[in-house]
Amino acid sequence: MLRRRALATRWLGVGLASVISVVTLGLGFTGRLTLYVSPETVWFACLAAAVTLIIAIWSCALPLGAEDDHGHDHGHSHERGADAAASRRRTWGTVATVTGGVIASGVVLAALVLPPASLSAQLAVSRAGETTALFAGADDVTLGVADTTTFGVGEWASAFATATRPEAYDGAAVTLTGFVTPRDAGGLNLTRMVITHCVIDAQPASLPLEGGVDGSYATGQWIEVTGTVRADDDGTLRIEPSAVKKVAEPKDPYEY
Q: How many CA atoms lie within 13 A of 17 on its CB side?
């Protein structure tokens, strides 16, 4: 019984940490860790995984059950409260440990079994409208800067939402890649997920497409749009496509 408990404790500690570390390093070496974190933080995630793995391997030198030895011989029973209270604490502690262990083991199993995948178009649709469309380059957009040579979907979404001089962007040529999502008012959007640190903070950036895109493009289909930005009389910006073609999902499906 004590041996099984010691094995379970070690699995919930160094065991799960080791598996997660190996998975993280594997994703990092194969270039797929960017499906979960931004490229700027890949090195940090891999370094943390390597350090965790080294500590986990070192901890295996401890005798089995050493994790439970601390504190067993300190003080007297009257200093720890009644035996009944101590028993209740142990029971609740066991329940919390088992619950956490089941959840953590499920996460580890999912990481091992499920292939890495990008965030779905359905998630982009569900998150649409949660926040104002302000992404990378938003400061330049607010100042009315019209140098669009490096703009992606995120920067253009910021320009469409906040530009103080929309006429400065009229006639700008664009070639953008994203996936198709529906518009509430009808028609289609070109959408890309934009993340700051990891997929937890991912938000969709969407651009309305006017003409040149028909209903043959299903939600989630990746497309490349070549066209021109147009500013209407009311200051609304839109993309007027000149060519649209289906493409495969990029190796790195996000913008940052």
A: 18
